[in-house]
Fold:
Amino acid sequence: MKLMEGGSAPGEEGAPRGAAEEVLLSGLFGLAPALKPNYALSLTRGAELLMRRQDAAVAVVASSSAPVSALSLADCIGCYAFQRHDGPEPSAAYFTVFCYPFKKSWWDSGASRHRVAKTFCVLASAEAEENRRVAETWARTIRELALPPSPKLAGATNGLLPRPCRVMVLLNPQSGSGRALPLFRSQVQPMLTEANIAFDLFVTEKPTHAWDLVREEDMSRWDALVAMAGDGLLYEMINGIMERPDWRSVTQKPLCILPGGSGNALAASLNHYAGKGNFVKEDLLINCTYFLCKGLHEPMDLVSLRTASGRRLFSCLSFGWGFVSDVDIASERYRKLGSARFTVGTFQLLTTLQVYKGRLSYLPADEQSPASDSSFPTGTQNCPSAEHHQHHQGSFDNGTLPVRILLPPVPPSPREGGDLEDSLLVPFEQPVPKHWTVVPEEEFVSIVCIYQSHLGADLILAPNAKLCDDAIHLFYLTAGVSRMAMVKIFMAMERGTHLTLNNPYLHYVPVKAFRLEPLEPKGFMTVDGEVLACQPVQGQIHRRLTRIISGPSEGLGPLRKEC
Ligand SMILES: Nc1ncnc2c1ncn2[C@@H]1O[C@H](COP(=O)(O)OP(=O)(O)OP(=O)(O)O)[C@@H](O)[C@H]1O
Structure:
Protein backbone atom coordinates (compact mmCIF):
# COMPACT_ATOMS: atom_id res chain seq x y z
CA MET A 1 0.00 0.00 0.00
CA LYS A 2 1.20 3.51 -0.77
CA LEU A 3 0.22 6.54 1.27
CA MET A 4 0.87 9.85 -0.52
CA GLU A 5 1.93 12.65 1.75
CA GLY A 6 1.73 16.44 1.61
CA GLY A 7 -0.83 18.59 -0.24
CA SER A 8 -4.00 20.18 1.12
CA ALA A 9 -6.63 18.42 3.17
CA PRO A 10 -9.69 16.89 1.52
CA GLY A 11 -12.31 19.48 0.66
CA GLU A 12 -9.94 22.41 1.09
CA GLU A 13 -10.08 25.20 -1.46
CA GLY A 14 -7.15 26.23 -3.60
CA ALA A 15 -6.00 22.76 -4.67
CA PRO A 16 -4.09 22.96 -7.98
CA ARG A 17 -5.69 21.88 -11.27
CA GLY A 18 -5.53 18.16 -11.70
CA ALA A 19 -5.38 17.74 -7.94
CA ALA A 20 -8.68 15.84 -8.06
CA GLU A 21 -6.93 12.92 -9.81
CA GLU A 22 -4.11 12.85 -7.27
CA VAL A 23 -3.99 9.40 -5.66
CA LEU A 24 -3.97 9.58 -1.87
CA LEU A 25 -4.02 5.85 -1.19
CA SER A 26 -3.64 2.78 -3.35
CA GLY A 27 -3.42 -0.94 -2.72
CA LEU A 28 -4.49 -4.46 -3.60
CA PHE A 29 -7.35 -6.03 -1.70
CA GLY A 30 -9.81 -8.88 -1.87
CA LEU A 31 -13.41 -7.90 -2.57
CA ALA A 32 -15.31 -9.95 0.03
CA PRO A 33 -15.90 -12.82 0.18
CA ALA A 34 -12.51 -13.15 -1.61
CA LEU A 35 -9.57 -13.02 0.79
CA LYS A 36 -6.81 -12.96 -1.81
CA PRO A 37 -6.21 -9.60 -3.51
CA ASN A 38 -8.38 -9.45 -6.62
CA TYR A 39 -9.00 -5.69 -6.79
CA ALA A 40 -6.62 -2.75 -7.18
CA LEU A 41 -8.03 0.25 -5.34
CA SER A 42 -7.01 3.86 -5.51
CA LEU A 43 -8.48 6.73 -3.57
CA THR A 44 -8.23 10.14 -5.20
CA ARG A 45 -8.25 13.63 -3.71
CA GLY A 46 -11.36 14.25 -5.83
CA ALA A 47 -13.12 11.75 -3.53
CA GLU A 48 -13.38 8.81 -5.89
CA LEU A 49 -12.72 5.20 -5.01
CA LEU A 50 -11.40 3.64 -8.23
CA MET A 51 -11.67 -0.15 -8.43
CA ARG A 52 -9.93 -2.27 -11.04
CA ARG A 53 -10.38 -6.01 -11.12
CA GLN A 54 -7.13 -7.98 -11.26
CA ASP A 55 -6.98 -11.33 -13.04
CA ALA A 56 -4.12 -12.35 -10.81
CA ALA A 57 -2.38 -10.56 -7.97
CA VAL A 58 -0.52 -7.98 -10.05
CA ALA A 59 1.72 -5.72 -8.05
CA VAL A 60 1.58 -2.57 -10.20
CA VAL A 61 -1.93 -1.18 -10.22
CA ALA A 62 -1.57 1.20 -13.19
CA SER A 63 -0.31 -1.49 -15.54
CA SER A 64 -3.60 -3.35 -15.59
CA SER A 65 -5.77 -2.93 -18.63
CA ALA A 66 -8.93 -4.11 -16.87
CA PRO A 67 -11.84 -1.61 -16.83
CA VAL A 68 -12.07 0.71 -13.85
CA SER A 69 -15.27 1.21 -11.91
CA ALA A 70 -15.62 4.12 -9.51
CA LEU A 71 -17.58 4.94 -6.38
CA SER A 72 -18.07 8.64 -5.76
CA LEU A 73 -17.57 9.34 -2.08
CA ALA A 74 -20.05 12.21 -2.38
CA ASP A 75 -22.58 9.35 -2.15
CA CYS A 76 -20.81 7.68 0.77
CA ILE A 77 -22.46 7.86 4.22
CA GLY A 78 -19.98 5.77 6.18
CA CYS A 79 -17.01 3.44 6.25
CA TYR A 80 -15.59 1.35 9.05
CA ALA A 81 -12.78 -1.12 9.64
CA PHE A 82 -13.09 -4.38 11.54
CA GLN A 83 -11.52 -7.78 12.16
CA ARG A 84 -13.18 -11.19 12.42
CA HIS A 85 -11.41 -13.46 14.79
CA ASP A 86 -13.82 -16.28 13.90
CA GLY A 87 -13.28 -15.64 10.16
CA PRO A 88 -11.48 -17.87 7.63
CA GLU A 89 -8.22 -15.92 8.06
CA PRO A 90 -7.72 -14.55 11.61
CA SER A 91 -4.94 -12.15 10.57
CA ALA A 92 -7.13 -10.48 7.91
CA ALA A 93 -8.68 -7.05 8.45
CA TYR A 94 -11.59 -5.54 6.51
CA PHE A 95 -13.13 -2.21 5.65
CA THR A 96 -16.68 -1.69 4.40
CA VAL A 97 -17.79 1.38 2.47
CA PHE A 98 -21.50 2.34 2.32
CA CYS A 99 -22.67 4.45 -0.62
CA TYR A 100 -26.09 5.51 -1.89
CA PRO A 101 -25.59 6.55 -5.53
CA PHE A 102 -28.44 7.45 -7.85
CA LYS A 103 -29.57 4.62 -10.09
CA LYS A 104 -32.33 4.41 -12.67
CA SER A 105 -34.98 1.83 -11.98
CA TRP A 106 -36.23 -0.25 -14.90
CA TRP A 107 -39.83 0.65 -14.02
CA ASP A 108 -39.24 4.38 -13.67
CA SER A 109 -37.62 7.07 -15.83
CA GLY A 110 -36.22 8.92 -12.79
CA ALA A 111 -33.20 7.94 -10.72
CA SER A 112 -33.28 7.34 -6.97
CA ARG A 113 -30.68 6.42 -4.36
CA HIS A 114 -29.80 2.74 -3.99
CA ARG A 115 -27.52 1.12 -1.44
CA VAL A 116 -24.10 -0.11 -2.56
CA ALA A 117 -21.92 -1.68 0.17
CA LYS A 118 -18.48 -3.08 -0.58
CA THR A 119 -16.23 -4.92 1.87
CA PHE A 120 -12.53 -5.27 1.12
CA CYS A 121 -10.17 -7.70 2.78
CA VAL A 122 -6.67 -6.53 3.79
CA LEU A 123 -4.18 -9.39 3.89
CA ALA A 124 -0.96 -7.64 2.97
CA SER A 125 0.84 -8.80 6.09
CA ALA A 126 0.97 -11.94 8.19
CA GLU A 127 0.49 -9.61 11.19
CA ALA A 128 -3.14 -8.96 12.18
CA GLU A 129 -2.11 -5.65 13.78
CA GLU A 130 -0.52 -4.36 10.56
CA ASN A 131 -3.58 -5.36 8.48
CA ARG A 132 -5.88 -3.63 11.00
CA ARG A 133 -3.79 -0.46 10.77
CA VAL A 134 -4.10 -0.45 6.95
CA ALA A 135 -7.87 -1.07 7.06
CA GLU A 136 -8.32 1.75 9.59
CA THR A 137 -6.26 4.16 7.47
CA TRP A 138 -8.48 3.44 4.47
CA ALA A 139 -11.71 3.70 6.47
CA ARG A 140 -10.64 7.00 8.08
CA THR A 141 -9.51 8.53 4.78
CA ILE A 142 -12.71 7.47 3.03
CA ARG A 143 -14.78 9.04 5.82
CA GLU A 144 -12.80 12.29 5.55
CA LEU A 145 -13.19 12.44 1.78
CA ALA A 146 -16.92 11.71 2.12
CA LEU A 147 -17.53 14.80 4.28
CA PRO A 148 -19.62 17.42 2.50
CA PRO A 149 -17.42 20.40 1.47
CA SER A 150 -15.80 22.06 4.44
CA PRO A 151 -17.94 24.54 6.36
CA LYS A 152 -14.80 26.47 7.38
CA LEU A 153 -14.79 28.55 4.20
CA ALA A 154 -15.29 32.30 4.43
CA GLY A 155 -18.87 33.50 4.73
CA ALA A 156 -20.19 29.99 5.27
CA THR A 157 -23.20 29.53 7.45
CA ASN A 158 -23.33 25.76 6.98
CA GLY A 159 -22.37 23.35 9.72
CA LEU A 160 -21.68 19.63 10.06
CA LEU A 161 -22.91 17.18 12.64
CA PRO A 162 -20.07 15.79 14.74
CA ARG A 163 -19.10 12.09 14.41
CA PRO A 164 -19.92 9.98 16.22
CA CYS A 165 -23.14 11.74 17.17
CA ARG A 166 -26.43 11.04 18.90
CA VAL A 167 -29.82 12.28 17.75
CA MET A 168 -33.30 12.39 19.26
CA VAL A 169 -35.88 10.81 16.94
CA LEU A 170 -39.57 11.58 17.48
CA LEU A 171 -41.77 9.29 15.44
CA ASN A 172 -45.51 9.60 14.91
CA PRO A 173 -46.83 6.07 14.28
CA GLN A 174 -50.10 7.55 12.97
CA SER A 175 -48.61 9.92 10.41
CA GLY A 176 -49.33 9.36 6.73
CA SER A 177 -50.73 5.92 6.09
CA GLY A 178 -49.46 4.68 9.47
CA ARG A 179 -46.21 3.06 8.28
CA ALA A 180 -43.68 5.41 9.90
CA LEU A 181 -42.42 2.88 12.47
CA PRO A 182 -41.85 -0.07 10.09
CA LEU A 183 -40.25 2.32 7.59
CA PHE A 184 -37.94 3.66 10.27
CA ARG A 185 -36.88 0.14 11.24
CA SER A 186 -36.40 -1.11 7.67
CA GLN A 187 -35.02 1.97 5.85
CA VAL A 188 -33.70 4.56 8.28
CA GLN A 189 -32.16 2.61 11.14
CA PRO A 190 -29.71 0.61 8.98
CA MET A 191 -28.47 3.82 7.31
CA LEU A 192 -27.96 5.54 10.70
CA THR A 193 -25.90 2.56 11.85
CA GLU A 194 -23.79 2.71 8.69
CA ALA A 195 -23.23 6.44 9.25
CA ASN A 196 -22.30 5.97 12.94
CA ILE A 197 -25.28 7.98 14.17
CA ALA A 198 -26.74 6.74 17.46
CA PHE A 199 -30.33 7.61 18.26
CA ASP A 200 -32.94 7.62 21.00
CA LEU A 201 -36.36 6.84 19.58
CA PHE A 202 -39.51 8.35 21.10
CA VAL A 203 -42.75 7.07 19.59
CA THR A 204 -45.45 9.67 20.17
CA GLU A 205 -48.62 8.46 21.84
CA LYS A 206 -50.97 11.38 21.30
CA PRO A 207 -51.20 14.88 19.83
CA THR A 208 -48.90 17.40 21.62
CA HIS A 209 -46.70 14.57 22.95
CA ALA A 210 -43.76 15.73 20.81
CA TRP A 211 -44.39 19.34 21.86
CA ASP A 212 -44.22 18.42 25.55
CA LEU A 213 -41.21 16.09 25.17
CA VAL A 214 -39.14 18.68 23.35
CA ARG A 215 -40.06 21.37 25.87
CA GLU A 216 -39.11 19.21 28.89
CA GLU A 217 -36.17 16.98 27.88
CA ASP A 218 -32.50 17.68 28.54
CA MET A 219 -31.38 18.69 25.05
CA SER A 220 -27.66 18.47 25.83
CA ARG A 221 -27.95 14.71 25.19
CA TRP A 222 -28.46 15.15 21.45
CA ASP A 223 -26.68 16.74 18.52
CA ALA A 224 -29.84 17.01 16.39
CA LEU A 225 -33.61 16.58 16.74
CA VAL A 226 -35.28 14.41 14.11
CA ALA A 227 -38.97 14.11 13.22
CA MET A 228 -39.92 10.88 11.46
CA ALA A 229 -43.42 11.99 10.62
CA GLY A 230 -45.35 14.55 8.64
CA ASP A 231 -44.78 18.28 8.86
CA GLY A 232 -47.20 18.52 11.81
CA LEU A 233 -44.82 16.77 14.19
CA LEU A 234 -41.92 19.07 13.31
CA TYR A 235 -44.25 22.03 13.91
CA GLU A 236 -44.94 20.65 17.41
CA MET A 237 -41.21 20.22 18.05
CA ILE A 238 -40.43 23.79 16.97
CA ASN A 239 -43.13 25.16 19.26
CA GLY A 240 -41.89 22.97 22.11
CA ILE A 241 -38.41 24.42 21.63
CA MET A 242 -39.73 27.98 21.54
CA GLU A 243 -41.40 27.45 24.92
CA ARG A 244 -38.12 26.51 26.57
CA PRO A 245 -36.30 29.04 28.72
CA ASP A 246 -33.11 28.17 26.77
CA TRP A 247 -34.78 28.48 23.34
CA ARG A 248 -32.02 30.71 21.97
CA SER A 249 -29.40 27.97 22.24
CA VAL A 250 -31.71 25.02 21.46
CA THR A 251 -32.87 26.65 18.20
CA GLN A 252 -29.25 26.33 17.05
CA LYS A 253 -29.42 22.54 17.39
CA PRO A 254 -30.21 21.21 13.90
CA LEU A 255 -33.67 19.85 13.20
CA CYS A 256 -34.25 17.13 10.65
CA ILE A 257 -37.35 15.88 8.87
CA LEU A 258 -37.62 12.28 7.69
CA PRO A 259 -40.84 12.13 5.69
CA GLY A 260 -43.38 9.75 7.18
CA GLY A 261 -46.52 11.81 6.59
CA SER A 262 -48.82 12.30 3.66
CA GLY A 263 -47.88 15.88 2.67
CA ASN A 264 -44.14 15.91 3.46
CA ALA A 265 -43.83 19.43 2.12
CA LEU A 266 -40.69 20.40 4.03
CA ALA A 267 -38.87 17.20 3.05
CA ALA A 268 -39.82 17.79 -0.59
CA SER A 269 -38.62 21.42 -0.35
CA LEU A 270 -35.23 20.37 1.06
CA ASN A 271 -34.92 17.85 -1.72
CA HIS A 272 -35.80 20.55 -4.26
CA TYR A 273 -33.14 22.93 -2.85
CA ALA A 274 -30.55 20.16 -3.22
CA GLY A 275 -31.41 20.10 -6.93
CA LYS A 276 -32.18 16.42 -7.21
CA GLY A 277 -35.61 16.39 -8.85
CA ASN A 278 -38.91 15.52 -7.24
CA PHE A 279 -38.96 12.42 -5.08
CA VAL A 280 -41.96 10.96 -3.34
CA LYS A 281 -42.61 8.16 -0.88
CA GLU A 282 -39.67 5.91 0.03
CA ASP A 283 -37.29 7.55 -2.47
CA LEU A 284 -37.83 10.85 -0.63
CA LEU A 285 -37.34 9.14 2.73
CA ILE A 286 -34.04 7.57 1.63
CA ASN A 287 -32.80 10.87 0.23
CA CYS A 288 -33.66 12.72 3.45
CA THR A 289 -32.00 9.99 5.54
CA TYR A 290 -28.96 10.37 3.30
CA PHE A 291 -28.99 14.13 4.13
CA LEU A 292 -29.01 13.28 7.85
CA CYS A 293 -26.15 10.80 7.39
CA LYS A 294 -24.08 13.44 5.55
CA GLY A 295 -24.82 15.81 8.46
CA LEU A 296 -24.86 19.17 6.66
CA HIS A 297 -27.07 21.77 8.34
CA GLU A 298 -27.94 25.37 7.56
CA PRO A 299 -30.11 28.19 8.89
CA MET A 300 -33.86 28.22 8.31
CA ASP A 301 -36.34 31.07 8.67
CA LEU A 302 -39.39 30.67 10.90
CA VAL A 303 -42.59 32.68 10.97
CA SER A 304 -44.02 33.95 14.24
CA LEU A 305 -47.81 33.89 14.11
CA ARG A 306 -50.12 35.69 16.52
CA THR A 307 -53.81 35.07 16.80
CA ALA A 308 -56.49 37.46 18.03
CA SER A 309 -57.20 34.98 20.85
CA GLY A 310 -53.68 35.60 22.19
CA ARG A 311 -51.84 32.52 20.96
CA ARG A 312 -48.35 32.75 19.59
CA LEU A 313 -47.18 29.97 17.30
CA PHE A 314 -44.06 29.35 15.28
CA SER A 315 -44.34 27.91 11.80
CA CYS A 316 -41.73 26.52 9.43
CA LEU A 317 -43.85 25.85 6.38
CA SER A 318 -47.15 27.59 5.77
CA PHE A 319 -50.22 29.34 7.07
CA GLY A 320 -53.46 29.16 5.13
CA TRP A 321 -57.18 29.82 4.97
CA GLY A 322 -59.75 28.83 2.38
CA PHE A 323 -59.62 26.17 -0.32
CA VAL A 324 -56.10 24.81 0.24
CA SER A 325 -56.56 24.56 4.02
CA ASP A 326 -59.98 22.98 3.62
CA VAL A 327 -58.55 20.34 1.26
CA ASP A 328 -55.87 19.57 3.84
CA ILE A 329 -58.43 19.13 6.61
CA ALA A 330 -61.21 17.48 4.60
CA SER A 331 -58.84 14.92 3.09
CA GLU A 332 -57.83 13.67 6.58
CA ARG A 333 -60.43 10.95 6.14
CA TYR A 334 -58.49 9.60 3.12
CA ARG A 335 -55.24 9.40 5.09
CA LYS A 336 -54.70 5.78 4.04
CA LEU A 337 -54.26 6.98 0.44
CA GLY A 338 -51.01 8.79 1.32
CA SER A 339 -50.35 11.89 -0.81
CA ALA A 340 -53.19 10.95 -3.20
CA ARG A 341 -55.52 12.15 -0.44
CA PHE A 342 -54.92 15.77 -1.56
CA THR A 343 -55.93 15.03 -5.17
CA VAL A 344 -59.14 13.36 -3.99
CA GLY A 345 -59.83 16.24 -1.57
CA THR A 346 -59.16 18.86 -4.27
CA PHE A 347 -61.67 17.37 -6.69
CA GLN A 348 -64.19 16.87 -3.92
CA LEU A 349 -64.05 20.48 -2.70
CA LEU A 350 -64.02 21.88 -6.24
CA THR A 351 -67.61 20.73 -6.60
CA THR A 352 -68.67 23.12 -3.81
CA LEU A 353 -66.23 25.98 -4.30
CA GLN A 354 -66.55 28.47 -1.41
CA VAL A 355 -65.80 32.17 -1.04
CA TYR A 356 -64.13 33.45 2.13
CA LYS A 357 -64.57 37.09 3.14
CA GLY A 358 -61.68 38.78 4.83
CA ARG A 359 -59.26 41.70 4.93
CA LEU A 360 -55.70 40.90 3.90
CA SER A 361 -52.78 43.29 4.48
CA TYR A 362 -49.06 42.83 4.13
CA LEU A 363 -45.65 44.43 4.35
CA PRO A 364 -43.98 43.84 0.95
CA ALA A 365 -40.56 42.20 1.19
CA ASP A 366 -38.85 45.14 -0.50
CA GLU A 367 -40.48 47.78 1.74
CA GLN A 368 -38.23 49.41 4.34
CA SER A 369 -39.93 49.37 7.69
CA PRO A 370 -39.81 52.59 9.75
CA ALA A 371 -38.96 51.99 13.40
CA SER A 372 -42.11 51.15 15.33
CA ASP A 373 -42.55 51.73 19.03
CA SER A 374 -45.88 49.96 19.24
CA SER A 375 -44.73 46.53 18.06
CA PHE A 376 -45.60 43.49 20.12
CA PRO A 377 -43.66 43.91 23.35
CA THR A 378 -41.64 41.11 24.85
CA GLY A 379 -42.91 39.51 28.02
CA THR A 380 -44.52 36.36 29.25
CA GLN A 381 -47.88 37.20 27.72
CA ASN A 382 -46.14 36.66 24.41
CA CYS A 383 -44.53 33.37 25.31
CA PRO A 384 -44.89 30.99 22.41
CA SER A 385 -48.32 29.63 22.93
CA ALA A 386 -48.78 28.67 26.51
CA GLU A 387 -52.26 27.97 25.16
CA HIS A 388 -51.12 25.31 22.76
CA HIS A 389 -52.85 23.04 25.23
CA GLN A 390 -56.05 24.05 23.54
CA HIS A 391 -54.90 21.80 20.78
CA HIS A 392 -57.36 21.52 17.94
CA GLN A 393 -57.58 18.23 16.25
CA GLY A 394 -60.49 17.15 14.26
CA SER A 395 -62.36 16.34 11.23
CA PHE A 396 -64.25 18.69 9.00
CA ASP A 397 -67.18 18.44 6.72
CA ASN A 398 -68.48 15.31 8.40
CA GLY A 399 -70.66 17.10 10.89
CA THR A 400 -68.22 17.02 13.79
CA LEU A 401 -66.37 20.00 15.11
CA PRO A 402 -62.73 19.75 16.10
CA VAL A 403 -62.18 18.25 19.52
CA ARG A 404 -60.42 20.47 22.02
CA ILE A 405 -58.05 18.67 24.29
CA LEU A 406 -57.39 20.74 27.38
CA LEU A 407 -54.20 19.99 29.22
CA PRO A 408 -53.03 21.64 32.46
CA PRO A 409 -51.35 25.02 31.99
CA VAL A 410 -47.58 25.20 32.23
CA PRO A 411 -46.20 27.72 34.74
CA PRO A 412 -44.21 30.44 32.95
CA SER A 413 -40.47 29.97 33.37
CA PRO A 414 -37.84 32.69 33.23
CA ARG A 415 -36.61 32.84 29.64
CA GLU A 416 -32.92 33.11 29.04
CA GLY A 417 -32.30 36.01 26.67
CA GLY A 418 -35.95 37.16 26.90
CA ASP A 419 -38.66 36.63 24.32
CA LEU A 420 -38.44 37.11 20.62
CA GLU A 421 -40.00 40.41 19.64
CA ASP A 422 -42.20 40.77 16.55
CA SER A 423 -40.92 44.20 15.58
CA LEU A 424 -43.02 44.43 12.39
CA LEU A 425 -46.39 43.73 13.98
CA VAL A 426 -48.70 45.99 15.96
CA PRO A 427 -51.49 44.81 18.29
CA PHE A 428 -54.73 43.76 16.60
CA GLU A 429 -56.57 46.71 18.12
CA GLN A 430 -54.45 49.02 15.97
CA PRO A 431 -54.74 49.29 12.18
CA VAL A 432 -51.77 47.93 10.22
CA PRO A 433 -48.96 50.49 9.77
CA LYS A 434 -49.42 53.02 6.95
CA HIS A 435 -46.59 51.65 4.82
CA TRP A 436 -48.34 48.25 4.61
CA THR A 437 -50.44 47.32 1.58
CA VAL A 438 -54.13 46.54 2.10
CA VAL A 439 -55.53 44.22 -0.59
CA PRO A 440 -58.57 45.94 -2.17
CA GLU A 441 -60.46 42.67 -2.74
CA GLU A 442 -62.21 41.18 0.26
CA GLU A 443 -63.51 37.94 -1.25
CA PHE A 444 -61.06 35.07 -1.56
CA VAL A 445 -61.08 31.45 -2.60
CA SER A 446 -57.77 30.65 -0.92
CA ILE A 447 -54.92 32.40 0.88
CA VAL A 448 -51.59 30.68 1.50
CA CYS A 449 -48.51 32.13 3.15
CA ILE A 450 -45.69 29.70 2.40
CA TYR A 451 -42.02 29.98 3.36
CA GLN A 452 -40.66 26.87 1.60
CA SER A 453 -41.01 25.81 -2.03
CA HIS A 454 -43.41 22.88 -1.66
CA LEU A 455 -46.99 22.69 -0.45
CA GLY A 456 -46.92 18.89 -0.74
CA ALA A 457 -44.46 16.30 -2.04
CA ASP A 458 -45.53 17.06 -5.63
CA LEU A 459 -46.95 20.60 -5.34
CA ILE A 460 -44.40 23.35 -5.94
CA LEU A 461 -46.20 26.50 -4.87
CA ALA A 462 -43.16 28.78 -4.41
CA PRO A 463 -40.41 27.41 -6.69
CA ASN A 464 -38.04 30.29 -5.88
CA ALA A 465 -38.36 30.07 -2.10
CA LYS A 466 -35.22 29.27 -0.11
CA LEU A 467 -34.58 28.04 3.42
CA CYS A 468 -33.58 31.48 4.57
CA ASP A 469 -34.65 34.11 2.05
CA ASP A 470 -36.23 36.29 4.74
CA ALA A 471 -39.57 36.17 2.91
CA ILE A 472 -43.10 34.90 3.30
CA HIS A 473 -44.40 33.95 -0.16
CA LEU A 474 -48.01 35.14 -0.14
CA PHE A 475 -50.37 33.58 -2.69
CA TYR A 476 -54.05 34.38 -2.90
CA LEU A 477 -56.86 33.45 -5.24
CA THR A 478 -59.64 36.02 -5.42
CA ALA A 479 -63.32 35.14 -5.91
CA GLY A 480 -64.48 34.69 -9.49
CA VAL A 481 -61.89 32.10 -10.49
CA SER A 482 -63.52 29.24 -12.36
CA ARG A 483 -63.27 25.58 -11.39
CA MET A 484 -61.56 24.80 -14.69
CA ALA A 485 -58.95 27.53 -14.07
CA MET A 486 -58.32 26.06 -10.61
CA VAL A 487 -57.75 22.60 -12.06
CA LYS A 488 -55.23 24.14 -14.49
CA ILE A 489 -53.49 26.02 -11.66
CA PHE A 490 -53.17 22.90 -9.52
CA MET A 491 -51.91 20.83 -12.45
CA ALA A 492 -49.30 23.48 -13.31
CA MET A 493 -48.29 23.59 -9.63
CA GLU A 494 -46.96 20.04 -9.99
CA ARG A 495 -44.18 21.60 -12.10
CA GLY A 496 -44.19 24.97 -10.32
CA THR A 497 -45.33 26.78 -13.48
CA HIS A 498 -48.73 28.05 -12.25
CA LEU A 499 -47.65 31.72 -12.29
CA THR A 500 -46.83 31.49 -16.00
CA LEU A 501 -50.56 30.89 -16.61
CA ASN A 502 -51.04 34.61 -15.82
CA ASN A 503 -54.41 33.91 -14.31
CA PRO A 504 -55.80 37.31 -13.19
CA TYR A 505 -57.31 35.78 -10.03
CA LEU A 506 -54.03 34.29 -8.84
CA HIS A 507 -51.81 36.80 -7.00
CA TYR A 508 -48.31 36.37 -5.66
CA VAL A 509 -46.26 38.77 -3.56
CA PRO A 510 -43.22 38.13 -1.36
CA VAL A 511 -43.80 39.81 2.01
CA LYS A 512 -42.13 40.19 5.39
CA ALA A 513 -45.32 40.30 7.43
CA PHE A 514 -49.07 39.94 6.93
CA ARG A 515 -52.38 40.30 8.71
CA LEU A 516 -55.53 38.37 7.81
CA GLU A 517 -58.83 39.40 9.38
CA PRO A 518 -61.73 37.10 8.43
CA LEU A 519 -64.98 39.06 8.08
CA GLU A 520 -66.92 35.88 8.85
CA PRO A 521 -65.80 32.80 10.80
CA LYS A 522 -65.74 30.26 7.98
CA GLY A 523 -63.88 26.97 7.80
CA PHE A 524 -60.56 26.44 9.54
CA MET A 525 -57.12 27.87 9.18
CA THR A 526 -54.02 25.70 9.01
CA VAL A 527 -50.49 26.18 10.34
CA ASP A 528 -47.99 23.70 8.88
CA GLY A 529 -50.99 21.50 8.08
CA GLU A 530 -52.36 21.62 11.65
CA VAL A 531 -55.80 23.03 12.41
CA LEU A 532 -56.33 26.48 13.88
CA ALA A 533 -59.74 28.00 14.63
CA CYS A 534 -60.72 30.73 12.15
CA GLN A 535 -59.81 34.14 13.62
CA PRO A 536 -57.66 37.19 12.87
CA VAL A 537 -54.02 36.11 12.48
CA GLN A 538 -50.88 38.06 11.73
CA GLY A 539 -47.31 36.97 11.31
CA GLN A 540 -43.80 38.02 10.46
CA ILE A 541 -40.71 36.27 9.22
CA HIS A 542 -37.71 35.72 11.52
CA ARG A 543 -34.59 35.15 9.54
CA ARG A 544 -32.37 32.18 10.40
CA LEU A 545 -34.22 31.46 13.63
CA THR A 546 -33.38 27.76 13.55
CA ARG A 547 -31.22 25.25 11.69
CA ILE A 548 -32.17 22.26 9.56
CA ILE A 549 -30.38 19.26 8.10
CA SER A 550 -30.25 19.88 4.36
CA GLY A 551 -28.78 18.30 1.27
CA PRO A 552 -25.41 19.14 -0.22
CA SER A 553 -26.62 21.19 -3.21
CA GLU A 554 -25.51 20.22 -6.69
CA GLY A 555 -23.83 22.57 -9.10
CA LEU A 556 -23.43 25.52 -6.73
CA GLY A 557 -19.78 25.00 -5.95
CA PRO A 558 -18.37 23.81 -2.67
CA LEU A 559 -20.85 25.77 -0.59
CA ARG A 560 -24.25 27.22 -1.20
CA LYS A 561 -24.15 31.00 -1.31
CA GLU A 562 -24.41 32.59 2.08
CA CYS A 563 -28.01 33.41 2.88
N1 LIG B 1 -49.65 8.71 18.48
C1 LIG B 1 -50.41 9.65 17.93
N2 LIG B 1 -51.73 9.43 17.73
C2 LIG B 1 -52.51 10.35 17.15
N3 LIG B 1 -52.06 11.56 16.73
C3 LIG B 1 -50.76 11.83 16.90
C4 LIG B 1 -49.87 10.92 17.50
N4 LIG B 1 -48.64 11.45 17.54
C5 LIG B 1 -48.75 12.67 16.98
N5 LIG B 1 -50.03 12.91 16.61
C6 LIG B 1 -50.59 14.09 15.91
O1 LIG B 1 -50.78 13.79 14.53
C7 LIG B 1 -50.85 15.00 13.80
C8 LIG B 1 -50.29 14.87 12.39
O2 LIG B 1 -49.03 14.40 12.43
P1 LIG B 1 -48.01 14.36 11.21
O3 LIG B 1 -47.79 15.70 10.68
O4 LIG B 1 -46.86 13.59 11.73
O5 LIG B 1 -48.71 13.45 10.10
P2 LIG B 1 -49.52 13.81 8.79
O6 LIG B 1 -50.58 14.78 9.10
O7 LIG B 1 -49.89 12.51 8.18
O8 LIG B 1 -48.45 14.41 7.83
P3 LIG B 1 -48.51 15.61 6.81
O9 LIG B 1 -48.45 16.84 7.67
O10 LIG B 1 -47.30 15.43 5.96
O11 LIG B 1 -49.79 15.43 6.07
C9 LIG B 1 -50.16 16.02 14.68
O12 LIG B 1 -51.15 16.94 15.08
C10 LIG B 1 -49.69 15.27 15.88
O13 LIG B 1 -49.88 15.99 17.06
